């Protein structure tokens, strides 16, 4: 097919036109426009003028560093728990016990249903008077009275993390399970004949071999979690008293709820800068892992 | 035998699985139990998980509280189906180009498409909102379908590309030698052979497009009758006068179709999710 000819073959470029058009119009152009807007005082009014770095200066003077720190704390906590739970889940679902096919089917629903609908149900569960968590907590004596999970700063923050973990864990689990099943059974059998225990085999065979999958997934998961909007917006809209305001929520509140397009755009540019750093790191990791695989 | 467990290992594994599945499924159980409780039992103190008079009443009365439920479900399905169809038109040729051709800038272009995965809708929403407003596209299905399409294309290209790379080149070479055009070869030879892979990509795209229709619909649409399920139900959420058992019944009915689709197609969904990913 791809015969080396002197003339440029335009056919592959032709094939890329539809995907490129959509991406240029809906992603690339708005991205460029966001950067431009971040240097203007754009708002509801049709008149806008360039204001230099003013938006960036006001942004940093108004407790924005706190929002950045909170975003990273939220992301690291959530991704960390997802990876640990996902690995544990994959190990459990990989065990050769009766019923495992059914268990594997039952893991995915949080990922399948619309994120927002799953979050409504969590919103009800966090209700202090009538929700399941507060209710059962009182029943078994863990809580002394009704506890409104979304009303105080720390518990609201942790509640949004728990819901994010609930939505993200199934994909991590299935992904790592597939990676585990890609491991040749010969390796385990050889170690088993030599008398290696299950835990030893997990540490010395399974874990190193699924490490590339864990690395890929934790980076992808970090990007998705960083960008997470639905969960926080539905549960708390960034409250109480900004306790759950991450960079995405802050951007949306500034731009869409308060119509300060210019200031919102400056926040969006900050997000893009952070995500570019992520992606650079991600591609570096992937190419390193790919190279290591080739060397083996 | 290597996979033989001792009794306490069985206990450990099943306890672990039970705890894991409890976390995963608890919200669905809670939604079901709430939908079965009469309203006064819902607000009883002290808290009771299951009450004496459980009934399916809410499933019949909810049609008055959430009159547009069918409409929301249809909108959700229609938007996800349109996104999937449009995305496939872009994904199939692009994945074919990346799988089969050497051309200048190939790796850069592939990386550029994948970089879209790292951009969130919230970052682009300001210019998109302004342009939709200027073109009079707010409150149309188009405003929800177009952005959704852009965000499912990269993953689709990635998945389908790894599938196409496993198809032997001899197939299309034979067709080309016979004098068939290259577009003809793509449509008549490659697509039929790659159909299972295209189905997997289509299913994964549909589920993603269905699960993530909140931000764009919330921002670009304020016409109730055009709302997809998540935004349609969101209007009730957090209001003082919410009839909770009916809202939970509506949520469960709303997600039932996609759960049924999932149960029947879960093999393909899991295969699609992990195919391109694990190896690359």
UniProtKB/TrEMBL annotation, chain A:
Where does it live in the cell? Cell membrane
Q: One GO cellular component term, please give it.
A: plasma membrane
Question: Which membrane topology describes this protein?
Answer: Multi-pass membrane protein
Q: Which InterPro entries match?
A: MetI-like, MetI-like_sf
Record keywords, A-Z: Cell membrane, Membrane, Plasmid, Transmembrane, Transmembrane helix, Transport
Q: Where is the signal peptide?
A: none
Record bears the keyword Cell membrane: yes
Query: What family is it from?
Result: Belongs to the binding-protein-dependent transport system permease family.
Q: What is this protein called?
A: Sugar ABC transporter permease
Q: To which species is this protein native? A: Qingshengfaniella alkalisoli
The record lists the lineage as: Bacteria, Pseudomonadati, Pseudomonadota, Alphaproteobacteria, Rhodobacterales
Automatic annotation (TrEMBL), chain B:
Recorded hits in InterPro entries, A to Z, give: BP-dep_ABC_trans_perm, MetI-like, MetI-like_sf
SUPFAM superfamilies (UniProt xref): MetI-like
Q: Name one GO biological process term.
A: transmembrane transport
Gene3D superfamilies tied to this protein: MetI-like (1.10.3720.10)
What are the protein's UniProt keywords? Cell membrane, Membrane, Plasmid, Transmembrane, Transmembrane helix, Transport
Q: How does it sit in the membrane?
A: Multi-pass membrane protein
Q: Which Pfam families match?
A: BPD_transp_1
An annotated GO cellular component: plasma membrane
User: According to its UniProt record, where is this protein located?
Assistant: Cell membrane
Q: Has the keyword Transcription regulation been applied to this entry?
A: no
**Domain ABC transmembrane type-1 positions:** 73-265
Looking at the UniProt entry, the stretches that span the membrane are 7-29, 72-97, 109-129, 141-160, 189-211, 247-265
| Database matches in PROSITE patterns | ABC_TM1
Similarity comment = Belongs to the binding-protein-dependent transport system permease family.
UniProt name for this protein:
Carbohydrate ABC transporter permease
Species whose genome carries this gene: Qingshengfaniella alkalisoli
Origin organism lineage:
Bacteria, Pseudomonadati, Pseudomonadota, Alphaproteobacteria, Rhodobacterales
């Amino acid at each position: 097919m791809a015969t080396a000819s002197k003339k440029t073959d335009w056919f592959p470029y032709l094939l890329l036109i539809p995907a490129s058009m959509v991406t240029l119009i809906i992603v690339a152009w708005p991205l460029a426009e966001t950067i431009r807007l971040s240097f203007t005082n754009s708002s509801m009014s049709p008149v806008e003028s360039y204001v230099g770095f003013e938006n960036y200066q006001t942004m940093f003077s108004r407790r924005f560093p706190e929002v950045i720190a909170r975003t990273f704390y939220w992301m690291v906590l959530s991704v960390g728990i997802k990876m640990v739970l996902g690995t544990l889940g994959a190990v459990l679902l990989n065990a050769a016990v009766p019923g495992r096919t059914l268990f594997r089917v039952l893991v995915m629903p949080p990922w399948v249903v619309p994120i927002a609908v799953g979050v409504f149900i969590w919103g009800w569960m966090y209700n202090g008077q009538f929700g399941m968590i507060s209710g059962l907590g009182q029943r078994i004596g863990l809580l002394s009275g009704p506890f409104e999970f979304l009303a105080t700063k720390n518990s609201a923050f942790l509640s949004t993390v728990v819901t994010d973990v609930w939505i993200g864990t199934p994909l991590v689990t299935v992904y790592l399970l597939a990676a585990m099943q890609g491991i040749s059974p010969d390796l385990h059998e050889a170690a088993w004949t030599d008398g290696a225990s299950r835990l030893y085999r997990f540490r010395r065979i399974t874990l190193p071999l699924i490490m590339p999958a864990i690395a890929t997934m934790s980076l992808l998961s970090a990007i998705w979690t960083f960008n997470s909007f639905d969960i926080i917006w539905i549960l708390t809209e960034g409250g109480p008293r900004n306790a759950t305001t991450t960079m995405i929520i802050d951007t949306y509140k500034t731009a869409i709820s308060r119509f300060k397009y210019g200031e919102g755009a400056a926040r969006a540019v900050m997000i893009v800068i952070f995500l570019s750093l992520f992606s650079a790191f991600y591609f570096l990791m992937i190419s390193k892992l790919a190279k290591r695989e080739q060397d083996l | 035998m290597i996979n033989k467990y001792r009794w306490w290992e069985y206990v450990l594994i099943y306890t672990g699985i039970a705890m894991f599945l409890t976390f995963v499924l608890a919200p669905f159980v809670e939604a079901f139990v709430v939908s079965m409780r009469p309203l006064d039992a819902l607000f009883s103190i002290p808290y009771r998980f299951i009450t004496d008079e459980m009934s399916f009443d809410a499933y019949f009365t909810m049609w008055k509280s959430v009159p547009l439920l069918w409409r929301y479900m249809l909108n959700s399905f229609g938007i996800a189906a349109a996104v999937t169809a449009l995305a496939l038109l872009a994904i199939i040729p692009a994945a074919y180009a990346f799988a089969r051709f050497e051309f200048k800038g190939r790796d850069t272009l592939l990386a550029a498409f994948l970089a879209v995965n790292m951009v969130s809708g919230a970052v682009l929403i300001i210019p998109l909102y302004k342009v939709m407003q200027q073109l009079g596209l707010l409150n149309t299905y188009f405003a929800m379908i177009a952005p959704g399409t852009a965000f499912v294309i990269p993953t689709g290209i990635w998945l389908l590309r790894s599938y196409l790379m496993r198809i032997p080149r001899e197939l299309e070479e034979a067709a080309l030698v016979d004098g068939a055009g290259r577009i003809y070869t793509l449509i008549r030879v490659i697509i039929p052979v790659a159909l299972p892979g295209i189905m997997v990509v289509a299913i994964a795209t549909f589920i993603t497009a269905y699960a993530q229709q909140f931000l764009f619909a919330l921002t670009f649409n304020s016409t109730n009758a055009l709302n997809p399920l998540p935004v349609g139900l969101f209007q009730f959420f957090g209001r003082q006068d919410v009839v909770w058992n009916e809202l939970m019944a509506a949520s469960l009915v709303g997600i039932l179709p996609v759960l049924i689709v999932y149960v029947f197609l879960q093999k393909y969904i899991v295969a699609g999710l992990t195919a391109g990913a694990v190896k690359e």
